[in-house]
Design a protein that fits this description.
Layout: H1 9-18, E1 39-45, H2 54-66, E2 71-76, H3 82-96, E3 101-107, H4 119-129, E4 137-138, E5 141-147, H5 159-167, E6 176-178, E7 197-200, H6 215-222, E8 228-233, E9 238-240, E10 245-247, H7 254-264, E11 271-274, H8 297-300, H9 308-321, E12 331-336, E13 363-369, E14 373-379, E15 382-388, E16 391-397, E17 404-412, E18 415-419, E19 426-427, E20 440-443
Parallel strand pairs: 1-2, 1-11, 2-3, 3-5, 5-6, 7-8, 8-11
Antiparallel strand pairs: 4-5, 9-10, 12-13, 12-20, 13-16, 14-15, 14-17, 17-18, 17-19
Helix pairs in contact: 1-3, 1-4, 2-3, 7-9
Length: 444
């Protein structure tokens, strides 16, 4: 099969709906059980991959793997073409002969779950890929996750029994490791024996006008004795649709501080999931802007986020090993919004996003230094210069009150050793045509 050719939609859908052997040849038995390790996943919206070829999947897998990410959590919904793209993803991973893994994360905001027959799709997805060499296993069991689903009964008498029927019965009995993102009170986790763990989806952002902390994680951990906890990491949140139009506070180095919290508490965190690889609609993508955007072009185009990946790589190493890695190259990561928080759009049919007052007009920087140096961060006439030690340091600049172009530099003595001048990274006090609270990200 040519790398650029899509796996046949008919073949893939047939494989899912009829429980036939999927594209490719897989082992007939599961891989040996492995201990629960510190693993890092990235949430991947399959619904944004309508035009993907296996070449696209290969490129994303290679990029994610190079940054220390262990697997994609494939968020699958009800679109009829999504099974063929899941097949493409597994085919690509297999063709690369990589250790990179994949697992299913069922989007229960899209998939029905009232009738017993609604479980058929989930059962067949699991049984189709459970012996694939690139299927993520935990303790020898197929890792399965969800987005939402805490009300699903699949025509059983309780939610607990409903999910047991859907993913832990028949051919999948005793073979799945279930770690869903359910939006319920963690104190109720003891009611659900189907859970092997829980994913704190909203732990990646502060849920109010305050900085991130570990309190939501701790509530999950306290209520998951002998079960796994999966924490979320995310760099940003802005969405601007009629049905959802809001921001979460992403200021004060959210991405960095979140990772540092998780590294501090790594003994209590089994897995981390980066939210997300490609959810353009909510602005928290860290992968390339490709695929089919969900009408998010107005705030995504021109706002590449892949510069964050190398910073994520640094933190992933520390999370997995318990030790921050040696820095061999001076690096600078700079990000921020490009318009004032109180700007008034001149041609936007929607109002300002909810919670827009939760963000400040600052530029944020994280630097990695081999040895001590001086760091300068500037935007127009506003400048901050500080001595910085070896290792990681954080800086911010603001509040920004005039239009300006962002620049930064690292110097040792009179020698500039790192310069991140970004002619495209501009902050403006002019009013935009449409609202955009997304982040511009640069690095060197």
């Amino acid at each position: 099969m040519d790398d650029a050719q899509l796996v046949s939609k008919a073949d893939a859908v047939s494989a899912i709906n009829q429980s036939l052997t999927p594209v490719g040849t897989f082992p007939t038995t599961l891989q040996p059980a492995l201990p629960v390790n510190k693993l890092v996943f990235a949430h991947f919206i399959v619904g944004n991959t309508y035009n993907y070829s296996t070449t696209n999947w290969k490129a994303d897998i290679i990029l994610a793997s190079s940054k220390g990410i262990d697997a994609f959590a494939l968020n699958v919904g009800s679109d009829s073409w999504e099974p063929s793209q899941v097949a493409n993803a597994f085919f690509a991973a297999s063709a690369l002969k990589t250790s990179f893994k994949l697992f299913l994360s069922f989007d229960m905001g899209s998939l029905p779950c009232a009738r017993a027959t609604d479980a058929d799709l989930l059962k067949t997805y699991i049984s189709t890929y459970k012996t694939h060499p690139n299927q993520q296993l935990i303790d020898g069991k197929v890792l399965v996750s969800t987005f939402s689903g805490s009300d699903c009964k699949f025509e059983q008498n309780t939610v607990d029994n409903g999910w047991k029927y859907a993913i832990k019965s028949g051919a999948n009995a005793n073979g799945t490791y279930f770690v869903p993102a359910w939006f319920i009170d963690p104190a109720t986790f003891s009611q659900y024996t189907v859970l092997d763990g829980a994913f704190g989806w909203n732990s990646g952002w502060p849920m109010g006008d305050y900085d991130i902390d570990f309190s939501q994680d701790q509530a999950y951990i306290n209520n998951l004795p002998s079960r796994s906890y999966m924490a979320a990491v995310s760099p940003w949140f802005y969405t601007h649709y009629q049905s959802k139009n809001f921001i979460y506070r992403s200021d004060d180095w959210l991405l960095a501080k979140r990772w540092e919290d998780l590294i501090t508490h790594r003994s209590s965190v089994n897995f981390v999931e980066v939210n997300t690889w490609n959810d353009y609609g909510e602005s928290h993508y860290v992968g390339p802007i490709e695929g089919i955007q969900p009408n998010s072009q107005a705030w995504v185009d021109g706002y590449d986020h892949t510069a964050w990946l190398d910073l994520i790589k640094y933190y992933i190493s520390a999370f997995k090993t318990g030790t921050y890695p040696t820095i061999s190259t001076d690096r600078t990561f700079v990000w921020g919004r490009t318009y004032k928080a109180n700007a008034v759009a001149t041609n936007d049919p929607l109002p300002k996003p909810d919670h827009y007052t939760w963000t400040d007009d600052y530029i944020y920087a994280v630097i990695l230094l081999r040895t001590p140096a001086t760091f300068t961060l500037s935007c127009g006439s506003l400048t901050t210069t500080s001595a910085a030690p070896a290792g990681l340091s954080k800086f911010k600049l603001g509040p920004l009150i005039q239009s300006c172009t962002v620049s930064s530099k690292i110097t040792r003595g009179r020698t500039v050793v790192n310069n991140t001048y970004q002619s495209k990274f501009k902050f403006t006090t002019a009013n935009p045509s449409v609202y955009n609270y997304n982040a511009y990200v640069a690095s060197t």
